[in-house]
Design brief:
The complex is a heterodimer of chains A (256) and B (362).
Chain A (H helix, E strand, L loop, with lengths): L2 H17 L1 H25 L7 H31 L4 H5 L5 H31 L10 H25 L5 H14 L14 H6 L4 H13 L8 H27 L2
Helix pairs in contact in A: 1-5, 2-3, 2-5, 3-5, 3-6, 3-9, 5-6, 5-10, 6-9, 6-10, 9-10
Chain B lengths: L19 H6 L3 E10 L27 E11 L4 E5 L6 H8 L7 E6 L2 E2 L4 H7 E4 L11 H11 L4 H14 L15 H13 L5 E5 L7 H16 L3 E6 L2 H7 L2 E6 L2 E6 L1 H6 L5 E7 L4 H8 L4 E6 L4 E6 L6 H10 L4 E7 L3 H9 L6
Parallel strand pairs in B: 3-8, 3-9, 6-7, 7-8
Antiparallel strand pairs in B: 1-2, 1-4, 4-5, 9-10, 11-13, 11-14, 12-13
Helix pairs in contact in B: 4-5, 4-6
Classes of the chains: A mainly alpha (256), B alpha/beta (362).
Chain lengths: 256, 362
Amino acid sequence: MNPKTFLAMLRRDAHVARRNFVTLLLQTLFQPMLLVFVFGKVMTSRGLIRPEYKGMLLPGIVALAMLLSGVWSVAMPLVAEFQFTKEIEDRLLAPMEIEWVAVEKVVAGMLQAIAAGFVVIPTAWLVMGSGVGLSFSHPLEFLTLTLLVSCLAASVGLALGTSVGQMHISLMFSLVIAPMIFFGCAYYPWSSLSVFPVLQGAVLINPIVYASEGFRSALVPRFPHLPKPAIYGALVLFDLLFVSFGMRQFRRKAIG
Amino acid sequence: MDSTRGLRPPLFLTLESASERTAEMAIGIRAEDLTKVYTSPPPAAAASGPFGLGFGRRKQKQSDDVTALDGLSLEVAAGEIFGLLGPNGAGKSTTVGVLTTRIRPTAGRAWIGEHDVWQERVPVKRLIGVVPQRPNLDLALTAREILIFHGAYFGVPAAERERHARELLDRFQLTDRADRLVLGFSGGMLQRLSIARALMHDPRVLFLDEPSAGLDPQTRLLLWDLIRSDNRRGTTILLTTHNMEEADALCSRVSIVDHGRIIALGTPAELKRSIPGGYVVRLHLAAAPPPLLASFERLPGVTAVRASGNGAVDLYADRGGALLPEVARLSTEASIEIRDVKISEPSLENLFLHHTGRSLRD
């Protein structure tokens, strides 16, 4: 590990993120805000959905925004850098073990995911207006979850970006990520799936479930959610799984 | 880490012509018996196609194994410009990949100075600068930022990297585009910037993989000047090329690579002297019957005749054009039509032809 090199790479990523600030902000906010506006504002005001839904929806939206921006911010550049621009080579030749280049990508992705979360929470709250009822009485839990979920996002990005080709990445998003989002308990709590017991069991392999339910447990604990040990345990496991798989793939890609 | 492990350490040769930095600091390169067999598509550094697919390509049949390096050994003296000359696919880029920590050899070892490339990758990376075959610049940054961030990766202090970047931009004639994103740069500008970036951390050994491929003649000459001037400052340079003119113009020594091994090594002058006769008259005949070839061989000054099928015949001789009347006479007497004649003066290209029976561009 060479801290100077590592920090310089982080500075480079921050520099590029600053340069693309408006694009990034729109990318992060646009879809979640549409969802929040339609389901949390329009439908609840018209009485089509009960107002409590606002509080139920917000944690899921936060989880999704963090996951998507983290995955995207790591996977897309990696795919391009390994396959097209090859600009990763300059980093691989920097005086630092190549594994730290992957770690830097993950850390940069985590920071981006965290930033996304911190932008989405207040914006969604503002859009939905009164009645969301967020509670920040468990700051430590919230912080831990933020770290675990952002790490999940960035490491899934690393795994995807080093395993999937340029041609398949968008296919991957529509065929794998999209169903994961819909079955990720972001728009409804896991307990509400009890009417479909098979589905309720099956979605437990989906890491997004633990992110959504986790934020529900931390931000709106009055609603039903998965038991906390299950949430934290699963998130830690998924983090380890994707980090180790992503690192392995990165090493394979980086060294011929 | 002990890099020697029972093997003799690399030689430190210092060339007399080099400047003061050479005498103290220049370091050499050594590779011993490098072998590389690709069982999957070659990685970034050596791959030619821009789009690799991630799916289903990993498990390939044994028959798809590609031997890129087949026991290649070389020794580059401190402070010299050394050329690897060979056709596409000869193993030049793979050699550079192995020497620059980017491709793990299947067997063999390599050293930069006294550091084992695969045991001490981080110290090796500090010593080397790499200019890839295809520019791999950071498209999200401006030219100046590319240089400054590269310097930062290598721990160059802030004030110094600003100053060094300014100098390099100036030297490489990029100052007027310094603060623009590199996305719209021409091939020549990208290549110059690639070299400038490699020099940002003041490497002791510079690797240039086909530095002038695809450049116009003017930019090529500028590039050669830049390479020479950097060498005078004491940087050891290893470059690959399939352009014999480039090898001739730049290199103090050249090795010819084909099929992953070195088939000839020496100064350009030595190598040229080694071609029998020096001149090559390449004939394309309607047919190449043995009696005709034998009569060519008896011509005064002809040292060797080589037929490579389809009427292609190479005459190695001490003369070029002066040989043609007699060649024409003999062919006419044998009623064989001459379809094409090409006379090559002594050159590395002829040398390659002599050693491999193939032209560099084949």
